[in-house]
Design a protein that fits this description.
The complex is a heterodimer of chains A (77) and B (147).
Chain A: E1 2-7, H1 9-15, E2 19-23, H2 29-39, E3 49-52, E4 55-57, E5 67-71
Parallel strand pairs in A: 1-5
Antiparallel strand pairs in A: 1-2, 3-4, 3-5
Chain B: E1 10-12, H1 17-26, E2 35-42, E3 47-48, E4 51-60, H2 62-79, E5 84-95, E6 99-107, H3 110-127, E7 130-136, E8 141-143
Parallel strand pairs in B: 1-5
Antiparallel strand pairs in B: 2-6, 3-4, 4-5, 4-7, 5-6, 7-8
Helix pairs in contact in B: 2-3
The chains are: A alpha+beta (77), B alpha+beta (147).
Amino acid sequence: MVVTLKYFGQIAEVTQKEEEQIEIKETLISELLELLYSKYDGLKSKDFQIAQNHELVTNETAISGAEIALLPPFAGG
Amino acid sequence: MKDKKPKNVFREGPISSDFIGNSIYKHQTKTSIGAHNIFLGQVRADEIDGKTVAAIDYTAYEDMANQKFHDIRESAFEKFELTCMHIYHSLGRVNAGEICLFVFVSSPRRKVVFEALEYIVEAIKADVPVFGKEIFEDETHKWKVNN
């Protein structure tokens, strides 16, 4: 499955990009995270939530969406 | 008034007092309204480790953020007897002392607008994916976190 990953704020500083498309065989968010931790040094120590198709998900959620975003702490307002 | 589709809440740069004043003026024709309440979020020149915040550079996951603003709006209309509500949030650089969030609620009666405004602002702070880079006077930065 091809997913689009989006990175914001301090997460984008770690990944050095705001978006990428990757081909994955992983089925759970937790597995995708392991992949990203090995790809990006320093990501594991960052605080973030994950959204799939614009809704927050947990590590146990199955990957179903085309768009997965790593969201650092919110600072609106 | 309810909207089916999410609107774009974001505005580039600070929200001007002219824009805010004009929004109030436009409600003079809506004569069922008896009370407005307004929240203005202003960028604070916090001092952190001896350095002063000069501005906040806002970014957002815009599609999700507009959806969340829409959900907050829908739930506020369900909970409270509101005639109308408007939300505007800045993107990009907003200097200390400038306005980055404008929430405007209106109702026939005053008690409703006090409760509704607090509910809406707290929901925005908690649920909407907006990110703020606090830029210090020496152009170094730190990422802001809502608490």
